[in-house]
Design a protein that fits this description.
The complex is a heterodimer of chains A (about 300) and B (about 325).
Chain A (H helix, E strand, L loop, with lengths): L1 H16 L26 E5 L5 E6 L3 H20 L2 H17 L1 H12 L3 H21 L3 H5 L1 E2 L6 E9 L2 E5 L7 H12 L3 E5 L6 H11 L8 E4 L3 H10 L5 E3 L7 H9 L4 E3 L26 E9 L3
Parallel strand pairs in A: 5-6, 5-8, 6-7, 8-9
Antiparallel strand pairs in A: 1-2, 3-4, 4-10
Helix pairs in contact in A: 2-9, 3-5, 4-5, 5-7, 9-10
Chain B lengths: L12 H9 L6 H11 L6 H14 E4 L7 H12 L13 E4 L4 H8 L5 E6 L9 H13 L4 E5 L2 H5 L3 H15 L3 E5 L8 H13 L4 E3 L11 H18 L4 E3 L7 H14 L12 E3 L2 H14 L12
Parallel strand pairs in B: 1-2, 1-8, 2-3, 3-4, 4-5, 5-6, 6-7
The chains are: A alpha/beta (about 300), B alpha/beta (about 325).
Protein name (chain A): Aldehyde dehydrogenase
Keywords (chain A): Oxidoreductase
GO molecular function (chain A): oxidoreductase activity
């Protein structure tokens, strides 16, 4: 008895002597061209949880970061769109695999950032992982569904084949930082486009976590570029950029009309916000969203080929 | 164009060697630090707009490929004359730079525009040919109407210390050029040290070069900032000593507006503002012009343009 007490005392003394461990806090940075740089402007902004507690500082992107992101996306386009659809599917499935390994991180993030209860957070993380699997499956099938042979009068075969539009700027849903984000980004890159993603302004941390998954799952650098910051600040420059081929305005909110007008100057394709936008993560839970988010970012190439000879 | 030097004095090997080895050594670390320091200058808004227009007027629009067709050369000439067909306020390029057998086509295409044709000569890019062949190469280009000749020095002779051979080759080619201006390509990527760059610069200047040019564009590294700095110092010192101004042309590796503006800053801070003219500073490039035009559009309209809106060649 006496001996045990001495042991307990010793342990307690040891614990008191050990220096307190320094906390290792993560720097949330941008994801551009496969690297994680800070904003060129050196700025950051505080991100708070649902009840107002400070969580972390996220990079506040500048116009220059946005331009760099477009350059990186353009550079990656030829390689990504040139891969076989099957290979793109393998890579998107790999994203799901790596996310699965980091379930706990994503769940904790949702609980901390949005005050979601744990069961609900689990559901949303599962749905987000499944969303990548869903679009991984579509990569080598959408061409058969959206394109095909056309009946024409004359001695010709006539084929229509969908091709990726190019560089797509995605304004991710503001109130659905993980499932909403995955649901808008995966369909854009599944068909061979490259993306510049403007993450949710109040909830950018899940997006940076997702970028870490992308960086470790064989997605070539530059295919998905992620900016955190003020949608109203960098959005206008991206919308007016002549080297951007399409905009997904899901999270553009009050700026949607202005961005669409700016995009019209350079004939940029636009996908307007849908019914899910502004309705939270739950609105994106539908397990079968179909092709409606892929087809707006495709160009149809039609080929005539003479029969016979 | 600078005043063509009077006939260079005859020199002996001994004298030339003494002159070149009498030049002060280059502090490599210092040159790199100075060039890096100058590259951080911020040039924005109206100053940037002026710098872009100046840079466009200094571009020697270049095509030096085995696959150069007459059509490609004509397209390049059209682009040099009017870089942006939609905007008449864009200045035309400094010159068009082609291989000797394409000079005739370029001269024809540029007639009436006032833009000169520069031709590489003397067995570009290696310079490994008999002197007779090099001279024939030069005379053919001049006869076809080239107003500027870009010759390469014999790096093999230079590196083995046969400075007199290099010197005499330059003076002979200079004679063959007649009224055409002579740019001497040092191919600094092969000269190994900045001391050699300084010696080669002074050697070329003394032999009568109107311009000294960094590289052929076929060897990497090409126009790095420390090399350009050392060459600008050489022309500055020569002007101080003799009153004659020699031009500098960096070529190869300058692909974007930022790089071009950094070079202009180097010129202004090293040789001085007198050199900020197409007569004394040129940039040899092919892809640079499109980036300059895109940045110009960006300043004028506020939106970033895409490369799809500009011609490829």
């Amino acid at each position: 008895m006496a001996e045990r007490r001495t042991d307990a005392k010793k342990t307690a003394r040891k614990a008191a002597q050990a220096p307190a461990r320094l906390s290792v806090r993560k720097t949330y940075k941008l994801y551009l061209g496969g690297a994680f740089p800070r904003s060129e402007s050196g700025r950051s902004y505080p991100v708070t949880s649902a009840d107002g507690a400070h969580l972390a500082n996220a990079s506040l992107s500048s116009r220059k970061d946005a331009r760099d992101a477009v350059v990186a996306a353009r550079k990656a386009f030829a390689g990504w769109s040139g891969r076989t659809a099957y290979n793109r599917g393998q890579i998107l499935y790999r994203v799901a695999e790596v996310m699965e390994g980091r379930r706990a991180q994503f769940t904790d993030q949702l609980v901390a950032a949005r005050g979601t209860d744990r069961t609900e957070a689990e559901t949303i993380v599962s749905a987000a992982i499944d969303r990548w699997v869903y679009y991984a499956g579509w990569t080598d099938k959408f061409a058969q569904v959206i394109g095909g042979s056309n009946p024409v009068s004359g001695p010709y075969y006539n084929h229509s084949a969908p091709e990726p539009t190019g560089v797509v700027v995605v304004f991710a849903p503001q109130d659905a930082p993980l499932l909403g984000l995955s649901s808008v980004v995966a369909p854009v890159v599944a068909t061979g486009n490259t993306a510049v993603v403007v993450a949710s302004e109040p909830g950018p941390l899940a997006a940076v976590d997702l970028a870490e998954v992308l960086a470790t799952s064989d997605v070539p650098g530059g295919v998905i570029n992620l900016l955190t910051g003020r949608t109203g600040e960098i959005g206008p420059h991206l919308a007016a950029h002549a080297d951007v081929d399409a905009l997904d305005l899901s999270g553009a909110g009050e700026h949607a009309t202005a961005f669409e007008e700016a995009a019209a100057q350079t004939l940029t394709r636009v996908l307007r916000p849908g019914p899910e936008d502004g309705a939270g993560e739950r609105a994106w839970l539908d397990p079968d969203p179909g092709t409606s988010r892929m087809s707006p970012f495709l160009e149809t190439k039609t080929v005539w080929h003479p029969i016979g000879v | 164009m600078p005043n063509t030097a009077s006939a260079p004095e005859a020199v002996t090997d001994r004298e030339l060697r003494a002159f070149l080895y009498g030049l002060p050594g280059v502090d490599e670390v210092g040159a790199a630090a100075r060039a890096k320091d100058l590259s951080t200058r911020s040039v924005k808004t109206t100053a940037k707009a002026r710098a872009i227009d100046l840079a466009i007027s200094m571009v020697d629009l270049t095509t030096l490929e085995g696959a150069d067709t007459p059509g490609k050369v004509r397209a390049l000439c059209a682009k040099a004359a009017r870089p942006d067909p939609e905007d008449r306020t864009v200045p035309s390029a400094g010159a068009v730079c082609v291989y000797p057998d394409r000079v005739g086509i370029a001269v024809e295409a540029l007639r009436g525009t006032g833009i000169g044709v520069a031709s590489v000569a003397t067995a570009f890019p290696s310079g490994r040919a008999p002197l007779e062949a090099k001279l024939a190469d030069t005379r053919a280009a001049v006869a076809d109407g080239a107003s500027e000749i870009d010759m390469v020095i014999d790096r093999g002779a230079f590196l083995s210390g046969d400075y007199l051979k290099v010197y005499e080759e330059i003076t002979t080619v200079k004679e063959a050029c007649g009224d055409a201006h002579l740019k001497v390509i040092l191919e600094t990527g092969e000269l190994a040290t900045l001391d050699n760059v300084r010696r080669a610069s002074h050697l070329a200047i003394r032999a009568g070069a109107d311009f000294i040019k960094t590289s052929t564009g076929k060897v990497s590294p090409a126009a790095t900032p420390p090399v350009v700095l050392v060459m600008l110092e050489a022309v500055r010192d020569h002007h101080r000593d003799t009153g004659r101004r020699v031009g500098v042309k960096p070529a190869g590796g300058i692909r974007d507006t930022k790089g071009a503006i950094r070079n202009l800053v180097l010129v202004n801070e090293t040789a001085g503002p007198d050199w900020l003219t197409p007569d004394l500073f040129r940039i040899g490039a092919s892809s640079l012009l499109n980036d300059l035009l895109m940045q110009r559009t960006r300043l004028a309209t506020g939106t970033y343009p895409g490369p799809d809106h500009y011609t490829q060649d």
